[in-house]
What we know:
Layout: E1 2-7, H1 12-25, E2 30-36, E3 42-48, E4 51-58, E5 63-68
Antiparallel strand pairs: 1-5, 2-3, 3-4, 4-5
Amino acid sequence: xxxxxxxxxxxxxxxxxxxxxxxxxxxxxxxxxxxxxxxxxxxxxxxxxxxxxxxxxxxxxxxxxxxxxxxxxxxxx
Length: 77
């Protein structure tokens, strides 16, 4: 599992921009569900084949981060 810290505070605009960056830069990425927790945290799900990517705007952890089942760096060089 790969984890990428995007911002050290929760921020909806940065979260949305990060989601758009993934959608623009990863060919064949499929956008899945977006879930909201009772504390206002948001998780956006994506899949690429059988691999899952999640983008988190975590109120609890106070950060925006990505978890991925594969290395995303090859898509952002």
